[in-house]
Amino acid sequence: MKRKLISIVMTMTMVMAITACGNSTETAEPAAEAVTEESVEAATEEASVEETVEAAAEESTEEAAESSEDEGEFSVGTVDGNSYVNEYFGVKLNLLDGYSFVDDETLAQITGLTADMLSDNKLLAKAIEDGTATIIAYAADSTGLNNVNVTVQSNASLANAILDEEAVLKASVDQAQSALEAQGISNITYDVVEKEVAGENHKVLKMNGEYNGIEFHNEMVNLQKGDYMLAFAATSFNGDSTDAMIDAVEALN
Question: Worst-scoring range by mean pLDDT, 45-49, 100-104, 172-176, 181-185?
């Protein structure tokens, strides 16, 4: 059962990464299969919105270039002990007691990227600027069943170029629900709520369900700045620690 629960955790992690890409039109079944094979294919955008998205992306890029001095230099952030710090977004995630970040080799297995790329911030930043949504930090507790991950992407791609926080989160619901159901999660409910994260009000997606009588909880928030987005997603079974983990995201002084 433990192996199955870990598979569910990884499925949700990968769904959140795909969602961060803004690819909300693809069903989640391929994502579940890709997790089993330890890889995820990017979903394709619908032709009917290509022109709109292209125009929005160009406009977003131009605006980002004009305001680059005000926004500061983009950074993927760094893991420092039991904290993840991102000065570009001005936030810091302090892990709950009992949690620890995985090393680059393990993270490479999760993301499909190489450990060398994950350890090179310049290469990683370039991949993100080119449109790759990347889980750049992943932490779990001693059971491996409760986790939090951090995903970074460029806002120049589909949904984030033209939609706000709430719209992006709601666009992820169908995909996430399908992926969870494929892994055996039932009685799934969701809600998009507003709460304070890192000193500011943000929209947060909360999903709950159960697996063979075991509670499942997931919570996700997207922080947008300039031409980039930073997503925090927490997953837990039985006791719900997702609120506490998202609340652990704080503003840098």
Answer: 45-49
> How does pLDDT run across 187-234, given as a tens digit for each residue?
999 999 999 999 999 999 999 999 999 999 999 998 988 888 899 999
DSSP assignment letter at 209: E
Closest CA to 162 of 12, 53, 235, 241: 53
> Is 0.90 topped by the overall pTM?
no
Which CATH superfamily, name and number, covers 2-251? Mog1/PsbP, alpha/beta/alpha sandwich (3.40.1000.10)
Residue 116 in 3-state DSSP? Answer: helix
Q: What confidence score (pLDDT) does residue 42 get?
A: 32
What's phi and psi for 131, nearest 5 deg?
110, 5
Contact 110, 11 (CB under 8 A): no
Residue with tokens 């991949």: 127
Task: Give the E-state strand segments of the chain in sequence order.
Answer: 78-80, 83-86, 91-94, 100-101, 134-140, 147-154, 186-197, 200-211, 214-225, 228-237, 249-251
Q: Where are the beta strands (DSSP E) in 142-181?
A: 147-154
Q: Where are the domains of the chain?
A: 2-251
Mean pLDDT of the chain, nearest integer: 77
